[in-house]
Amino acid sequence: MAEITLKGLAHSYEKTPTRVADYAIRQMDHVWHQGGAYALLGPSGCGKSTLLNIISGLLEPSEGEVLFDGQRVNELPPEERNIAQVFQFPVIYDTMTVFDNLAFPLRNMNTPEHRVKPKVLEVADILDLTPLLKRKAKNLTADEKQKVSMGRGLVRDDVTAILFDEPLTVIDPQLKWKLRRKLKEIHERFNITMIYVTHDQLEASTFADKIAVMYEGQVVQFGTPRELFERPTHTFVGYFIGSPGMNFMAVEYQGDQVMFGSQPLPVSASLKRAIASANASNIKLGIRPEFITISPHQTTENIPIEVASLQDLGTHSLLTFRLNGQPFKARLPEGHPPVGETAFAHFDNAHVALYIDEYRVEAGHE
Ligand SMILES: Nc1ncnc2c1ncn2[C@@H]1O[C@H](COP(=O)(O)OP(=O)(O)OP(=O)(O)O)[C@@H](O)[C@H]1O
């Protein structure tokens, strides 16, 4: 069993880091609970692999602690951490058979041969590798090889967590969903903590119960896929999650109005109060494309927009428009009437979120 705690963790690849930007991982505290199916999601370079390598012990953090069930493991080498890591590219021995590859971690720990065979057969069965057991690994396809890599993590009874670093990168798109489902099955069957690194939100939300979104070396939100969509706590999460992401407007309070450039916005009274009393210059409003409605008629609740393009996506259309010179996206339901040159946008106030210095602030709705 392992609950993995990261305490005051930070890492810099520089010998003498001086600026925040010198850190691949910026000061963070985080807990991965025992048995969870987690994803670590973020863009290239945000620090995902660095964080995984710190957890598995391939990399020693420059600051802070890694605790397994409350015990500091910073000094423990990877082989003593009971953690398996599956990389982008399969790590297997090409000249060995699939059986011997799967048996390798057990034999390496001097497990008696009568216990090796049943375990290998069990894991091969779960991963649909039984018909391939006698084949040399070099003759396998990329997805079969990656399944063998995963199997090598699963055969060990002492493994309490498996870390997957973009494991489906080399897999054909049509096989990806199959392997993802397999991983989910394995998670349900074994009581293992799984952390799955990806930059693909679909992969993250189909695999994980909870997703940690990383941005510039920090976990900016840890939540269910639904929470990330409905209540992004950081502007980056709003922008990164969703297809397309959230629209943002930099606003200011001027003469009893909330202004987006020269455009007054008809926001709720509570939002107006929150903006009026915010002691900050970086104030943004966020709204998802799903909560913007478009009308050909002006009311007191909507604002004039400049229509740029309309894209038919089958189940819905995506309208691109400009407001105050900035592009916005609105998702229009199937069967929406055509949008003419004169159009007005209504932002559903219940779904307009306030961000101060990039973090969400609750303003209430009235
Ligand atoms: N060995 C290294 N030496 C120096 N800098 C490194 C090293 N490995 C990573 N970095 C830097 O640390 C930062 C985080 O990189 P990391 O590989 O952890 O990100 P990532 O989110 O996994 O990206 P990707 O998805 O592209 O692998 C990046 O700025 C990267 O250039």
UniProtKB/TrEMBL annotation:
Record keywords: ATP-binding, Cell membrane, Membrane, Nucleotide-binding, Transport
Domain called ABC transporter: residue spans: 4-241
GO MF terms, alphabetically ordered: ABC-type ferric iron transporter activity; ATP binding; ATP hydrolysis activity
GO cellular component, one term: ATP-binding cassette (ABC) transporter complex, substrate-binding subunit-containing
InterPro entries (alphabetical): AAA+_ATPase, ABC_transporter-like_ATP-bd, ABC_transpr_FbpC, ABC_transpr_MalK/UgpC-like, Mo/tungstate-bd_C_term_dom, NA-bd_OB-fold, OB_MalK-like, P-loop_NTPase
Membrane listed as a keyword: yes
Matching Pfam families: ABC_tran (PF00005), OB_MalK (PF17912)
Protein name listed in UniProt: ABC transporter ATP-binding protein
